[in-house]
Amino acid sequence: MTTPATPVRVLLADDEEMIRRGVQLILSHAEGIEVVAEAVNGEQAVQLAAEHRPDVALVDIRMPVLDGLAAVSRLVALDPAPQVVMLTTFGDDQNVVRALRDGATGFLLKDEGPQELISAVRAAAAGDAVLSPGVTGSVIRRMLTGGSAPSSADPRLSSLTDRERQVLSMLGQGASNADIARSLGIGVGTVKTHVGAILEKTGSTSRVQAALLAHQAGLAG
């Protein structure tokens, strides 16, 4: 596997020292990943993210002073903004949904294995959604519950080009940038450009929100 020329810079935010130590230990042994800062609450996470400019922020949902949920919107508003992955536990679907709607890239269960953690960091850094399979189904169902579903005539969708609609459809199916590139016969860089245009035109703050829109509009297949 080819590792990036520059390491993926990671900010870890969790008030439990044992969790931080464990995650830091796992990531320190992964090629192409560097933990550049550790925070014990959401307020500190925002401050350190502004200072260190990490590519990925792993953020616990429940923390003192400022919890991870309140920190998400402030983290994604930074320039440059990190990809925010929430660290969560089973049974926390409601909070995960809020974090995703506020712009988080995805979520990861705290008891996932080392390889899943490493893969999640790399996926987030590449701009892909990170959705822990153990709770993805229940979270998506909760996000789709309530409210009227937009139709394919929704102004946000009508502004998309045919290619952007293809990409949005594949986002709704959970495809990564690399998967989309292979399927459509285009470069990963081109996919990223299309995803960026989709987010801007639909007012989505993350590819997870765009994927949800695809589901609501019946574009996910």
From TrEMBL:
<keyword id="KW-0804">Transcription</keyword>
<dbReference type="InterPro" id="IPR011006">
    <property type="entry name" value="CheY-like_superfamily"/>
</dbReference>
<dbReference type="Pfam" id="PF00072">
    <property type="entry name" value="Response_reg"/>
</dbReference>
<dbReference type="InterPro" id="IPR001789">
    <property type="entry name" value="Sig_transdc_resp-reg_receiver"/>
</dbReference>
<keyword id="KW-0805">Transcription regulation</keyword>
<dbReference type="InterPro" id="IPR039420">
    <property type="entry name" value="WalR-like"/>
</dbReference>
<feature type="modified residue" description="4-aspartylphosphate">
    <location>
        <position position="60"/>
    </location>
</feature>
<feature type="domain" description="Response regulatory">
    <location>
        <begin position="9"/>
        <end position="125"/>
    </location>
</feature>
<keyword id="KW-0238">DNA-binding</keyword>
<dbReference type="Pfam" id="PF00196">
    <property type="entry name" value="GerE"/>
</dbReference>
<protein>
    <submittedName>
        <fullName>Response regulator transcription factor</fullName>
    </submittedName>
</protein>
<feature type="domain" description="HTH luxR-type">
    <location>
        <begin position="153"/>
        <end position="218"/>
    </location>
</feature>
<keyword id="KW-0597">Phosphoprotein</keyword>
<dbReference type="InterPro" id="IPR000792">
    <property type="entry name" value="Tscrpt_reg_LuxR_C"/>
</dbReference>
<dbReference type="InterPro" id="IPR016032">
    <property type="entry name" value="Sig_transdc_resp-reg_C-effctor"/>
</dbReference>
<dbReference type="InterPro" id="IPR058245">
    <property type="entry name" value="NreC/VraR/RcsB-like_REC"/>
</dbReference>
